[in-house]
Write a structure and sequence with these properties.
- The protein has a 6-stranded mixed β-sheet with strand order 4-5-9-6-8-7, sandwiched between helices.
- The protein is globular, with a radius of gyration of 24 Å.
- Helix 11 crosses helix 12, helix 12 (389-406) packs antiparallel against helix 16 (470-480) and helix 13 (410-429) crosses helix 14 (439-452).
- It is built from 17 helices and 14 strands.
- It has helices at 115-122, 134-141, 166-179, 184-203, 215-219, 223-226, 233-238, 241-251, 267-278, 327-340, 346-354, 389-406, 410-429, 439-452, 457-466, 470-480, 496-499; strands at 19-23, 50-51, 64-69, 74-77, 83-88, 94-101, 145-150, 155-162, 257-263, 301-307, 314-320, 358-364, 376-383, 486-493.
- The protein is α+β, with helices and mostly antiparallel strands and 500 residues long.
- It is 38% helix and 18% strand.
């Protein structure tokens, strides 16, 4: 259901071939730049990536230097408003196809909580020409894999297949965009499935929904950001067939979506196939979206939740993030790496390894590029019972106080940039847990298209992170990592006596 932070995989090979290369003639041989940095043994600390010339060609000239990421991208918009983005890559005879709809948790209308997630399920229940389960069977029989997920601002459906099955995938996706089978039987069935998912994953799970379901109602005042994203059972039960059909007709229209095709195809053939299968689907009215903005926060907010199954006290501290693509947003993105960079992150190192107050301390910005509204950088801490919540919070605050007052050293900032760049490359090649080729690139292209109307940002946005200065990091920390800009949720285990 959720889009988690894409993890780091091995250093990608295909990305290097997508870079613009600058050749520099050198009279004398020069040593390669110093390599290293935490988390990456193969990337330099310079602003550009040095590649040994033999790894690219047998050119006699010395000094091949990467200057700009150049992933080939072509895009167009069909007459019905459907945006189509293609990133050709003939490395392997595989294509990844995704359809992203601009409807997520925060965009569903009041009184319809959980509809975005419900429709993630409904979209696999058959369409006019593909009966129930036929979509899944046809993808699997083609040697492919598929899935879907619901996020704050989008819902996506994606599959990877051998490239000779591309047209089959486009036909299936177009058929359910045009005529999803929305009937009483499917509604009742999938409503029960969603409710059972909530029972299993949240209500009867230790720390279920912590903190991503616990935090929003404490942190936010706008219903769009604060409501139960899984959906209140009352809202789900009250949904009529007419309500569900209206939701589909409002948000699942071509002018509220982007089609992405990545892999082994000719772009012009891809556009022709997209036109052939999707072009006749009529556009809908521009979907109405409520304003998700929040009133300014002026004081710390706190909430308490009982933990019925777990035995360790826990807390989550969330700081409201800067607006997307601002100078502070880039700075906080790097600072997040310093604070939550695994075992090397300052919070884990201080609370778990050194002071040994907590047994777990992790978190961060879940999907930095995938948000288009208010969001948080959230730290999740599970601490030892012998330490009170306030003692744990003071230890956490000390870590952030040092960042606000002293900032980060120049050498640490350079290491953060190396790690950020490495993670970004890995994201572009990343496969959603390893099973979906180029999922990371697809996701970024979709978000940059729907939120920024600039799919080509995938080639340039890294530069803005690498330009961040120490002064900008410290200024962002002082402006955003302060108590009056945060919310805290305490998850406290009930005693054995109370549980009984």
């Amino acid at each position: 259901m959720r889009c988690k932070r894409i993890g780091v995989v091995s250093q990608p090979r295909g990305i290097l071939a997508c870079w613009q290369v600058e050749r520099e003639s050198r009279v004398s041989a020069e040593p390669a730049p110093r390599r290293g940095g935490p988390g990456c043994g193969c990337l330099p600390q310079a602003d550009s990536l040095w590649i040994p010339e033999q790894s690219l060609c047998r050119d006699k000239e010395r000094g091949l230097r990467v200057t700009q990421l150049q992933i080939p991208i072509e895009s167009t918009t069909l007459q019905n408003g459907l945006r189509v983005v293609i990133a050709p890559d003939t490395t392997a005879p595989v294509v990844t196809v995704g359809v992203y709809y601009k409807i997520g948790f925060r965009l569903e209308p009041p009184g319809r909580s959980g509809f975005a997630h419900l429709f993630e399920h409904m979209m696999f229940q058959g369409s006019d020409n593909a009966p129930k389960m036929q979509h899944i069977k046809l993808i699997n029989s083609s040697g492919g894999v598929l899935n879907g997920s619901t996020m704050y601002d989008v819902t996506n459906y994606y599959q990877a297949v051998p490239s000779n099955a591309l047209e089959r995938v486009l036909w299936l996706e177009a058929d359910r965009m045009r005529a999803l089978k929305v009937d009483d039987e499917n509604l009742r069935n999938q409503r029960d499935v969603v409710k059972e998912e909530v029972r299993v994953n949240v209500l009867n799970q230790p720390y279920g929904g912590f903190p991503w379901l616990d935090m929003p109602p404490v942190a936010f005042r706008n219903w769009a950001n604060a409501h139960n994203f899984y959906g209140d059972f009352a809202d789900l039960d009250a949904a009529s067939l007419a309500d569900v059909q209206k939701f589909f007709g409002t948000y699942y229209v071509p002018n509220n979506a982007v089609l992405l095709i990545l892999g082994d195809l000719n772009p012009q053939e891809g556009f022709a196939l997209a036109e052939g299968h999707f072009g006749a689907i009529p556009a809908g009215a521009t979907p109405p979206f409520a304003d998700p903005s929040e009133p300014p926060q002026k004081e710390e907010r706190r909430g308490h939740v009982e933990e019925k199954f777990g035995t360790l006290p826990a807390m989550a501290i969330g700081y409201v993030m800067p607006e997307r693509r601002t100078a502070d947003w880039y700075a906080i993105g790097l600072l997040d790496q310093a604070l939550h960079g695994g075992r090397a992150g300052r919070i884990h190192r201080e609370l778990v390894l050194e002071k040994q107050i907590a047994v777990e301390a992790d978190g961060g910005i879940d999907d930095l590029f995938g948000y288009n509204g208010p969001t948080q950088m959230t730290t999740r801490i599970m601490h030892k019972p012998e330490y009170s919540a306030e003692e744990t919070l003071r230890a956490f605050d000390e870590v952030l106080r040092e960042v606000r007052e002293k900032g980060i050293a120049a050498d640490e900032l350079e290491q953060l940039k190396v790690k950020w760049r490495s993670d970004y490359y890995s994201t572009l090649e990343g496969g959603r847990g390893g099973y979906m080729p180029r999922y990371g690139l697809m996701h970024l292209l979709a978000c940059f298209t729907l939120f920024d109307n600039q799919p080509a940002l995938v080639n340039t946005i890294l530069n803005d992170f690498l330009k961040v200065t120490r002064e900008e990091v410290r200024a962002a920390a002082k402006a955003y990592l302060v108590p009056e800009n945060r919310a805290i949720v305490f998850r406290t285990p009930v005693s054995k006596k109370e549980a009984a």
